[in-house]
From TrEMBL:
<dbReference type="InterPro" id="IPR029032">
    <property type="entry name" value="AhpD-like"/>
</dbReference>
<dbReference type="GO" id="GO:0051920">
    <property type="term" value="F:peroxiredoxin activity"/>
</dbReference>
<dbReference type="Pfam" id="PF02627">
    <property type="entry name" value="CMD"/>
</dbReference>
<dbReference type="InterPro" id="IPR004675">
    <property type="entry name" value="AhpD_core"/>
</dbReference>
<dbReference type="InterPro" id="IPR003779">
    <property type="entry name" value="CMD-like"/>
</dbReference>
<protein>
    <submittedName>
        <fullName>Alkylhydroperoxidase AhpD family core domain-containing protein</fullName>
    </submittedName>
</protein>
<keyword id="KW-0575">Peroxidase</keyword>
<feature type="domain" description="Carboxymuconolactone decarboxylase-like">
    <location>
        <begin position="25"/>
        <end position="106"/>
    </location>
</feature>
<keyword id="KW-0560">Oxidoreductase</keyword>
Length: 118
């Protein structure tokens, strides 16, 4: 996908999540707090945590995870090499399906990293 495809995917998903959030506001608020707390820098920095989330998203074959965590990894300054190693760990843990989703994750990261350079 190109950056516009990944951006469009996120925009569409954001719209769907907004509708869901309206129907389950307590759950959505709780999830937001869990996400914010989980990514907050501590013993591990936010970039490392986003790379971990990306690896899990690859292994779980979650398209939304690829988009959101690739974008966040780029935002926090992850390098392409760090994303490649993250994909390697995901493939180790998830086998062949993770290899396919790893390629998709790299496409998403490249798109968002290029966007940040513009």
């Amino acid at each position: 996908m190109s950056v516009s495809d990944w951006q469009d995917f996120i925009l569409q998903t954001d719209g769907r999540i907004a509708e869901l959030r309206g129907g389950i506001p307590g759950v959505a608020k709780g999830f937001h707090e869990v996400a914010r707390s989980a990514i907050k820098a501590g013993a591990l920095d936010a970039k490392t945590k986003e790379l971990m989330a990306l690896a899990i998203g690859i292994a779980a074959r979650c398209d939304g995870c690829l988009a959101y965590h690739s974008k966040a990894a780029a935002k926090y300054g992850a390098t392409r090499e760090e994303v490649m190693e993250t994909i390697g760990v995901a493939v180790y843990m998830g086998g062949g399906p993770s290899l396919i989703y790893g390629a998709e994750a790299l496409s998403a990261f490249d798109a968002f990293a290029r966007e940040g350079e513009e």
